[in-house]
């Protein structure tokens, strides 16, 4: 803290004593940059005060609550587009939770299809049939991997029974993929009358933005049995009504419809929200959660139990730093000692109560059937229940209600998860971070750079929406949660503004060097040690934190590289998009991340090669930085060869050298590679031109 303050003081002093406009603006830009970095450092400290590691003792659970008293659970799975989120993968996710080691008659799986696609519905009809074989198979063989795809990919025991299962799985997969390929469910794929009826809703004029509600009960507790005669869990397909004239609030809107429909149909006190690609990797997970919900020392205020997002299929060095170790695994431990971790949007078990006001201030929903204490005592297929379910899924239902503001998941932010969790905590709810050794859920991350950067751009916009809303963590948050917890949320909400220092440090000292100005202290100057200390201190600490959390050095290197890259791309574009939104020029949308995998891309990804390929504008600032830094490095070397002292340019050259080291894959993609993932020539040309223009402008300013 002292060193950071000293540095800021140094910048302020140089700015005040500067004699020209140029040196004043240079010092000012450094002052702003370091102030932002200092702010991030300071708020980041809040994750270090009270770290808590929790452990459950599953063997004691049934001494506290008997199995017959286990609460019912409703699972929500969201999907939004059959072409970006293959129905086969959604089906796998659903099957993995349907097969939970939990009384099946207490389990309901709701699938929300925002894509309004008959392909997804078809896939789930197939899944319902396959499930009646899969569930008893898992129980009997005590299978750990209950996601069929993961199971058959893994090293499973071979027997005639598993082979038979595999055949069944493959034939289901083939049918689903065929239907998705053709793009429509043709008649020969539909077997029963009931099924045909379901597809009748897809009439002329049914589009994903404009269609009536579809609710289809695919499996019903008590009625549908698996092949051994045991009850199947409920499996319910929902595609809420959509209309071009009503806002649908993206995922938060979908979840609120699920909240209401499930209240009408099953009203389980515990809910699990899952993204369509996050399959369960451990059938014991609901029992872990019960350990917390039945712990009377924490339970009255316990709002949710969050599991970390963990991913499968990352390459060895995780080149795009998609493991998100810090936000998903390290920081929540720090928040757990305070009010508890933030909500990640997936892998989170809620108490239904939290969606109806604070722990001490219940807010009554419009109709009594939605109350969390309402008892459902009719079968879900009852006419009146179905009618009410359709009613609450209507796109106009929420008009003039508290949904999205005081009830349910909160609207108005592209990271509805972060915002909702934050608001729940400010209402007084606590949360718990549950991080067992065996990952409870495994998800997917994009494997090409463009998708990775745009995903982070969406988050950046969302974070800024929270940062500058009336619920800003720095004002409202600190008041409601206390300063340390408020800082934790501020750290995330203001995260995208690191684009300011990153952009400045990638261009300004370099341009200065190219026009011959030295802006950092000489090596012989005592202020130099300040720089050396801060740089080494920050990087070494960062690296150690990462490695102590079971990380590797290479993955840390990727992470710090992507931090830099995101600063120039996602955060920068996100901040600009947020600004244009504030000015009323643009409207924001939730672009679903594609989960489709191109085989060639997958191969390159597995080899650890960066994937550019598409001429995307988001690459431009990144390539510009790569170009200017390498030019600066050579320019600096020339200067030194011509006799200028290294002393003066040392810091600037080190900085350029460090960026060049990080940008190595970009130079490769521009110059050396010939595969489809190389840098598109148009991006290289545009970036070169813009870099040159920047340099020309900078030299012009200097002449004035
Ligand atoms: O209009 C929409 C848009 C998205 N989704 C679903 O939301 C989930 C997350 O979407 P994805 O494109 O995978 O976003 P990610 O960036 O990978 O997701 C992270 O960030 C989101 C917020 O931006 C959170 O909602 C997620 O839980 C979190 O994993 C998916 O299951 C989608 O099907 C909907 O249901 N309706
Ligand atoms: Mn996702």
TrEMBL record:
Gene3D superfamilies: Spore Coat Polysaccharide Biosynthesis Protein SpsA, Chain A
PANTHER family documented for this protein: X-BOX TRANSCRIPTION FACTOR-RELATED
Subcellular location: Endomembrane system
Stretch forming the signal peptide: none
Spans through the membrane: 24-44, 489-508, 528-548, 568-590, 618-637, 649-667, 679-702
InterPro entries: Cellulose_synth, Nucleotide-diphossugar_trans
Protein name: Cellulose synthase-like protein
A biological process term (GO) from this entry: cell wall organization
Binding positions for Mn(2+) per the UniProt entry: 251, 275
């Amino acid at each position: 803290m002292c060193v950071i303050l000293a540095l800021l003081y140094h910048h302020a002093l140089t700015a005040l004593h500067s004699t020209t406009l140029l040196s004043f603006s240079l010092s000012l830009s450094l002052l702003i940059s370091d102030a932002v970095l200092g702010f991030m450092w300071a708020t980041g400290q809040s994750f270090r005060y009270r770290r808590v590691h929790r452990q459950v003792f599953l063997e004691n659970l049934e001494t506290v609550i008997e199995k017959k008293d286990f609460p019912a659970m409703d699972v929500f799975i969201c999907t939004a587009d059959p072409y970006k989120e293959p129905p086969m993968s959604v089906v796998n996710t659903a099957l993995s939770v349907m097969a939970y080691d939990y009384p099946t008659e207490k389990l309901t799986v709701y699938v929300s299809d925002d894509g309004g696609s008959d392909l997804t519905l078809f896939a789930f009809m197939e899944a319902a049939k396959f499930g009646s074989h899969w569930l008893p198979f898992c129980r009997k063989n005590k299978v750990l991997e209950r996601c069929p795809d993961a199971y058959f990919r893994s090293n499973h025991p071979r027997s005639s029974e598993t082979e038979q299962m595999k055949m069944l799985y493959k034939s289901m997969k083939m049918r689903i993929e065929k239907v998705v390929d053709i793009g429509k469910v043709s008649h020969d794929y539909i077997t029963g009358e009931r099924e045909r009826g379901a597809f009748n809703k897809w009439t002329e004029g049914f589009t994903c933005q404009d269609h009536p509600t579809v609710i289809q009960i695919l499996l019903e507790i008590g009625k549908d049995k698996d092949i051994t005669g045991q009850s199947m869990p409920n499996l319910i397909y929902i595609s809420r009504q959509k209309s071009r004239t009503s806002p649908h609030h993206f995922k938060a809107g979908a979840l609120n419809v699920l909240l209401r429909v499930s209240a009408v149909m099953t009203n389980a006190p515990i809910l699990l929200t899952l993204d369509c690609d996050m399959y369960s990797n451990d059938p014991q997970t609901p029992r872990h959660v019960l350990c917390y919900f039945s712990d009377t020392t924490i339970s009255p205020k316990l709002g949710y139990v969050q599991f970390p997002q963990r991913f499968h299929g990352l390459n060895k060095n995780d080149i795009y730093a998609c493991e998100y170790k810090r936000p998903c695994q390290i920081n929540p431990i720090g928040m757990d000692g305070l009010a508890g971790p933030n909500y990640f949007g997936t892998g989170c078990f809620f108490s239904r109560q939290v969606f109806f006001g604070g722990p001490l201030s219940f807010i009554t929903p419009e109709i009594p059937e939605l109350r969390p204490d309402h008892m459902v005592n009719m079968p879900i297929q009852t006419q009146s229940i179905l009618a009410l379910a359709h009613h609450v899924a209507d796109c106009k239902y929420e008009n003039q209600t508290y949904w999205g503001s005081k009830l349910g998941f909160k609207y108005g932010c592209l990271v509805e998860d972060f915002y909702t969790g934050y608001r729940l905590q400010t209402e007084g709810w606590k949360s718990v971070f549950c991080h067992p050794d065996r990952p409870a859920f495994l998800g997917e991350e994009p494997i090409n750079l463009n998708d990775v950067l745009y995903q982070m751009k969406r988050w950046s916009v969302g974070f800024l929406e929270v940062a500058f809303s009336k619920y800003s963590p720095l004002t409202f948050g600190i008041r409601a949660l206390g300063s340390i917890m408020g800082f934790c949320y501020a750290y995330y909400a203001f995260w995208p503004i690191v684009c300011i220092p990153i952009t400045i440090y990638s261009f300004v000292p370099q341009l200065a060097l190219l026009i011959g100005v030295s802006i950092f202290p000489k090596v012989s100057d005592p202020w130099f040690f300040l720089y050396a200390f801060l740089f080494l201190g920050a990087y070494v600490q960062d690296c150690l934190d990462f490695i102590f959390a079971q990380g590797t050095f290479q993955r840390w290197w990727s992470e710090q590289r992507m931090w830099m890259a995101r600063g120039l791309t996602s955060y920068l574009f996100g901040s600009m998009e947020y600004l244009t939104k504030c000015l009323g020029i643009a409207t924001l949308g939730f672009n679903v991340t594609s989960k489709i995998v191109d085989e060639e891309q997958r191969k390159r990804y597995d080899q650890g090669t960066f994937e550019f390929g598409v001429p995307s504008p988001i690459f431009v600032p990144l390539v510009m930085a790569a170009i200017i830094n390498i030019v600066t490095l050579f320019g600096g070397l020339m200067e030194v060869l011509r006799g200028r002292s290294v002393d003066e340019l040392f810091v600037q050259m080190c900085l350029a050298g460090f960026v060049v080291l990080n940008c190595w894959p970009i130079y490769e993609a521009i110059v050396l590679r010939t595969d489809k993932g190389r840098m598109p020539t148009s991006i290289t040309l545009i970036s070169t031109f813009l870099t040159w223009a920047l340099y020309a402008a900078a030299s012009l300013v200097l002449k004035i």
